[in-house]
Amino acid sequence: MLLISCPNCGPRDETEFHYGGQAHVAYPENPNDLNDREWAEYLFYRDNTKGSFAERWVHSTGCRQWFNMLRDTVTYDIQAIYPMGTPRPDVRIPAAAEAGTASTAADSTTTGNAAPSISATSIAPAASPAGTTAPKGATK
Q1: Of the candidates 75, 69, 42, which has an alpha carbon nearest to the alpha carbon of residue 57?
Q2: CA of residue 70 relative to chain centroid, distance
Q3: Which of 10, 35, 49, 85 is deepest in the core (most CB within 10 A)?
């Protein structure tokens, strides 16, 4: 759970906020001059950045004010919170190292290059020791 510091109310639980999409998307100067393709790009096409990303948020159950947040999409670290209408701050944070347990080896299933090795596994039922029988009343 994120702890978001509202510029007006202070730190609050993320359940009090709603995400408003990518920040700093400029409204077209002459929207009537846009063709369908250009209008669709303005409405629906957004960046999908891995790392530092500027977002709009609203404190919906508090002061109901909009603000911008600079957040790392990999680590969820909040790097900056700043008012609407101000430019994105220049925050230099070193790129986070790749985390997790996924392998990047050539035979890894995460790369899609090969199937996993099943040589150490068996899908046949385990052999029962000789001379043992099922308990009375058990079914096959």
Answers
A1: 69
A2: 14
A3: 49
Instruction: Give the percent of the chain with pLDDT over 90.
Output: 61
User: Would you state the pLDDT for residue 120?
Assistant: 53
Residues of the chain by 3-state class (helix, strand, coil), percent to 5 = 10, 25, 65
pLDDT digits (tens, 9 = 90+) for 44-96: 999 999 999 999 999 999 999 999 999 999 999 999 999 999 999 987 755 55
8 Å CB contact between 71 and 79: yes
Say how far apart CA 3 and CA 78 lie, in whole Å: 9
- Given a contact cutoff of 8 angstroms between Cβ atoms, the answer to whether 54 and 1 are in contact is no
